[in-house]
């Protein structure tokens, strides 16, 4: 095999590898973009759910009690523990 044929073969292999790598980068970029969109949708859904939960809590409890649970540092733990008790004993 002559030197020019070897160089042509090596150049074609190199170009094939570059094209393959470019395709992998494109696929990865598309997946990252789709995952980012999904994460943004999930964050928006979580914000909407949190907003709805806060509104429901304000409708169930008196204002000062809802304020205590919503603005305390351990509010999430207290709500999870105390809310089932409220719902079973103080149904409006």
TrEMBL record:
Keywords: Lyase, Nucleotide-binding, Signal
UniProt keyword annotation of Cell inner membrane present: no
A GO CC annotation given for this chain: plasma membrane
GO biological process, one term: adenylate cyclase-activating G protein-coupled receptor signaling pathway
Name of the protein this chain belongs to: Secreted HNOB containing protein
Gene Ontology molecular functions: adenylate cyclase activity; nucleotide binding
Originating organism: Pristhesancus plagipennis (Common assassin bug)
Signal peptide (residue range): 1-22
């Amino acid at each position: 095999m002559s030197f020019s044929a070897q160089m042509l073969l090596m150049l074609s292999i190199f170009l094939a590898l570059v094209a393959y790598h470019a395709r992998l980068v494109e696929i990865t970029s598309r997946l990252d973009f789709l995952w980012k969109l999904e994460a943004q949708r999930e964050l928006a859904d979580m914000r909407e759910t949190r907003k709805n939960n806060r509104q429901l809590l304000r409708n169930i409890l008196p204002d000062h009690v809802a304020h205590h649970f919503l603005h305390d540092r351990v509010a999430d733990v207290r709500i999870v523990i105390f809310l089932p008790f409220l719902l079973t004993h103080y149904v409006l």
